Amino acid sequence: MSESTSAKGLVLVVEDERAISDLLRMYLSREGYGVHVATTGPDGLSYARTLHPIAMVLDVGLPGIDGTEVCRQLRAEGNWVPILFCTARDDEVDRIIGLELGADDYITKPFSPREVVARVKSVVRRAQHAADAPGPLSLGPVQLDPVTRRVLVDGKPMMLTATEFDLLAHLMDNPGRVYSRDQLLSEVWGYAAVVGTRTVDVHVAQVRSKLGDHDIIRTVRGVGYSAEASP
Ligand code: CA
After folding, report:
1. C-beta of residue 152 within 8 angstroms of C-beta of residue 211
2. Alpha-carbon span 190 to 120, nearest angstrom
3. Tell me, what's the pLDDT at 193?
4. What is the 135 CA–ligand 1 centroid distance (Å)?
5. φ and ψ at 182, to 5 degrees?
6. How far is the CA of 210 from the centre of ligand 1 (A)?
7. What is the pLDDT averaged over residues 11-22?
8. What pLDDT is recorded for position 40?
9. Cα–Cα distance, 2 to 20 (Å, whole number)
10. pLDDT tens digit string along 81-102?
11. CATH code for residues 137-227
12. Which whole-number Å values give the CA distances from 35 to 29, 38, 49, 194, in the listed order?
């Protein structure tokens, strides 16, 4: 559980498999991040609270408390540190999404450390670029303020994860414009579309289910998605 600090900020890796945490530490350090490794759920939770990391790489299967519970507790406390989930199985992805935990991204094992680094950079970049985002956006019943990261739907506040927020903001920034899944991956997630476009679909589905009757996203079959006042 050694710790290294860096100007780029600290990434908290919560992973009980030594081989994986060693690899992540090496690759993330090489990119200039400080890295702190916790090996149990309770440790992960307490370091997330005390070290104020700029991002977390969070394994799902952990001793003590599992990763989904760690995330749930942090969100319940109002801690919105960007979280990249690592899962051992594909079906855990559905569980993570189904629980609406407020994960920012997920990656399935076995993964390449390079890809984890790319994802970490991406969640950090998105969280940090919020400050120089465009002015408030309004479309139909949805109002979104990229500076405060607040969303109002029909006048009522709505909670979105960082990724969901960025996705909706991107669509709302150009109402009516249709974005392909690949475009959204590179423009919102910030990495090339090597991960497949299912990520886009699941996040769009999450935003839509939160918007409910006030859904402003239109599916353009065979093309992608757009935001429209009356889709
Ligand atoms: Ca594990």
Report:
1. no
2. 11
3. 45
4. 41
5. -65, -40
6. 30
7. 95
8. 97
9. 15
10. 888 988 887 667 666 665 666 6
11. 1.10.10.10
12. 7, 10, 15, 26
Question: Can you name the residues that pair with 219 across neighbouring β-strands?
Answer: 225
Ligand 1 centre distance from Cα of residue 61 (Å): 4
| Domain chopping of the chain, boundaries | 3-128, 137-227
Q: Per CATH, is 3-128 categorized as 3.40.50.2300?
A: yes
Asked whether the CA dihedral 92, 94, 96, 98 is positive or negative, the reply is: negative
* pLDDT single digits (tens) 43-86: 999 999 999 899 999 999 999 999 999 998 998 887 888 889 88
Widest CA span in the chain: 53
Q: How far apart are CA 94 and CA 87, in angstroms?
A: 10
Distance (angstroms) between ligand 1 centre and the Cα of 192 equals 27
- How far, in Å, is the centroid of ligand 1 from the Cα of 60? 6
Report the percent of the chain where pLDDT is more than 70. 86
CA pair distance 178, 221, nearest whole angstrom: 11
Q: Distances from the Cα of 36 to the Cαs of 5, 9, 30, 40, in angstroms?
A: 9, 11, 14, 13
Stretch 149-162: mean pLDDT: 88
Whether the model pTM is above 0.90? no
